[in-house]
Write a structure and sequence with these properties.
single chain, 148 residues, alpha+beta, Glutaredoxin, elongated
Length: 148
């Protein structure tokens, strides 16, 4: 459902040549149908409007931005599940914030890198490497830390 820019909506920023954008089209359409009448969808092809892409800070497609009349409330990049899109639609309705999650592959990469840095720091007695390793480990787990 097309939406007015001053109503709650999800901005779907894509390109015609992006295979992930084409794969997401039916997922976005299904999410839009589930939220019809509450939150709309505005589709933007950045090849047609590169200036808008710069204004929005688009670095990759597909990008999905949940917006309310007050402005942007959440943003996700890449292929998303229907559940992840539903969370964006809910954010546009002010129902729930969208928690950013670190992917399992990214978490394993960060924690593995942290282990190597800590191990190297201990092996060569370099506290700086140990400290960097601890920071990398923290960034690998930040989304699991409870917030007050």
């Amino acid at each position: 459902m097309p939406a007015a820019p001053d109503s709650p909506h999800v901005l779907a920023v894509t390109t015609r040549t992006c295979p992930n954008c084409r794969a997401m089209a039916p997922v976005v359409a299904a999410a839009a149908a589930r939220h019809e009448g509450e939150v709309g969808v505005i589709a933007v092809d950045v090849t047609d409007d590169p200036e808008l892409a710069r204004e929005l800070g688009i670095r990759a497609v597909p990008t999905y931005i949940a917006r309310t009349p007050g402005g942007e409330v959440a943003r996700r990049v890449g292929r998303l599940s229907g559940r992840e899109l539903d969370a964006l639609f809910a954010a546009a309705r002010h129902e729930a914030p969208v928690a950013r999650r670190v992917s399992i592959a990214d978490r394993v990469l960060r924690l593995g890198t942290a282990a190597v840095l800590v191990g190297a720091g201990v092996a060569v007695s370099a506290p700086v490497l140990v400290a960097i390793g601890v920071l990398v480990a923290a960034f690998g787990m930040w989304d699991l830390i409870p917030r007050c």
